[in-house]
Amino acid sequence: MRITQRTVVLAGSCVLVIGALVAFLIVRDPLDPLTPENLAGARKLWRESGIRDYDFRYEMSGSTYDVFVREGGVRRLLRDGASTSTHSPELFTVEGIFEVLDLELDQRDKVSQPSAVARPAMLLYVRFNAEYGYVERFIRVVGGSGKSHGLQTLSFSANPATSLSAGE
Questions:
Q1: For residue 26, what pLDDT is reported?
Q2: What is the domain extent for residue 136?
Q3: CB burial string 123-159: b at 16+ within 10 A, e below
């Protein structure tokens, strides 16, 4: 395969654009690189908080999710204000998002392994809540693709005054 000057310029431009985007996001909203260590620290903080009842609202993949957890289980799940069902509602909880971040780390490690097939770099950034450990903001950027994915917490209420029955 012959590498042309146009290919080099295009690849360099993609790297600069992705780098500028990541730099902008980090400066605008300071985040730390996601590591197994800071994820373990957030999990520990969450466990130590002992919170089993909470309301959690966040944006992800263009949708807003409202998750109502009581006694450690999802009692109600809304997507864009409408009730939704899933076989794995626990993936939408604080603990479930920790699991998703574990998968993100695994995927990043696979992408960064040497291979005969060139793969773009995957950059993972996060900010955990300092008091409870839940994810306040997460960004995944796949280099060269111009694509990013993220999660932004809109609100979190520990031990809310309202109670929900299992059917609500």
A1: 46
A2: 5-158
A3: bbbbbbbeebbbbbbbbbbbbeeeeeebbbbeebeee
